[in-house]
Amino acid sequence: MAPEIDLLLSDPSFPQAFWGIKIQELRTGRTLYERNADGLVMPASNMKLVSTATVLQSMDLDFRPRTWLYATGEIVGDVLEGDLVLVGGGDPSLGGRFAQADPLRDAGDPWVAMRDLASGVTDRGITRITGDIIAVDDFFAEEPLGYGWAWDGLSSGYSAPIGALTWNENVVRIFAEPGAEPGDPAKVRVEPDVGALVVEVDVNTSGPLSRSRVRARRDPWSDVLVVSGSVAAGGREWRGQISAPDPTRFAALGFRVALEEAGVVVEGEVIDQDDLPVAQKPVRVEPEYGLIPADGVRLLMEYEGPRIDELVWLTNKISQNLYAETLLRLPAAVEGGVGSVSEGINNAESVLLGMGIPASHYVMRDGSGLSRYNYLTAEVITRLLRSMARGPQAEAWFTSLPVMGIDGTISRRGRGSTIEGRIFAKTGSISNSRALSGYAVRAAGDTLTFSIIANNFTDPARAVEYLQDLICELLVAAEPGRDVPQGKQRGRGSQE
């Protein structure tokens, strides 16, 4: 196997690429191949292996993040003479993704959760609120964006800001449908439209033989969404998505719309509790996921999200960045009162050290892998993979990984080949970096752990993925006991 892998990596199309690779037998730990295994590489979303392994090791799998609804003041007849208080407990799935048959398909109907929360008001016979909707996000530190995230992607859906109160994965979807004739304005809509964005539209209908060219953009620190371009007459509807700038406000606005649709009149405004004086704050966050309401504040409803293992499953299957960042922060929020990136990284360092991986062997700056300051090694990743496969959370861990040719981020790779259904692996994708790390179940029945990461290439990324898939084919087909590294020293493999 080693000569075949060397031959693949000698492809002249990748003269500047740096490969970090390690392949081991899961049962024995015997190394079958390595190249630059101790070299630090940018892992992209392979960093999610660290954040999801950490939360599985740190939290009870039965734990469900919650969202609370409180009321201040008295209920007189059908009127609440006070405020509604919406408190986020770090549930990244608040919306409709897990309410549908296939959560991997899309985010689902965002109004599912908001209608349920609104029922906490209507079930008490309330039809009018004289006060405000106060949104509370205090379980997480105010760190909506990751350290080292590329500024030109901050408004994209994959860079959605993080908060303890998040709705619809903090994105809006944009749809542009062509008009009846060329030259007509296109029909553009934004969903959910709750007033979080100021939408400016300049999209026309082009000729039927032209290509649709639509651009949706929002400056990183602005709430103005500009949709421009053209869609072809008679063509398909164009679809895109963009992040909302303020998760807390976005969720509170969505809750207000859900109340109004349920027939509840809200006379006040949407307010972030952070903008209130300390003496006027209706609830206080306490250690161990605790809330202390002020005098006269009563609980109306507690809304439970999915189990931790379900959130990990979704995170790894579709490489969901917001979920990964939330899971990084959540253990500290549950145990210490406030979830932060630094506390999440400290927790990860403790878990990795228990696996025999010291902090000097990697650099961690976020939980999703969006940061270009993250660095792992193939050695670190394979050690983590072997440790998780032998640990008490092995089933939840293994189940969360995408399956080649079947589901998740590798559902379209390896179809009809020998690796379909035999590679269980996490992808990583960022500019000039592609990663694939996980397990290969060989035809002989044994299992290998592997990490294959390419950095610094300039050729099409799909060509790198193709080489990764070819290496996986070699892993699956190889016979046990026959794969001995030839001339490779740890961290000193050749670089073509």
Structure notes:
With 496 residues, the protein is α+β, with helices and mostly antiparallel strands. The chain folds into 3 domains: 2-61 and 309-477, DD-peptidase/beta-lactamase superfamily (Beta-lactamase); 66-149 and 248-306, D-tyrosyl-trna(Tyr) Deacylase, Chain: A; 151-243, no CATH class. Helix content is 25%, strand content 25%. The chain contains 10 helices and 22 strands. The chain has helices spanning 2-9, 47-58, 111-122, 247-261, 308-318, 321-336, 341-354, 378-390, 394-400, 461-477, and strands spanning 18-25, 31-35, 66-71, 74-76, 79-81, 84-88, 128-129, 133-136, 171-177, 187-191, 198-206, 213-217, 224-232, 238-243, 265-266, 270-272, 283-286, 290-293, 298-304, 423-430, 433-441, 447-455. The strands form 6 sheets. A 5-stranded antiparallel beta sheet has the order 2-1-22-21-20, with helices on both faces. Helix 1 runs antiparallel to helix 10 (461-477) and helix 6 (321-336) crosses helix 7. The radius of gyration is 25 Å and the shape is globular.
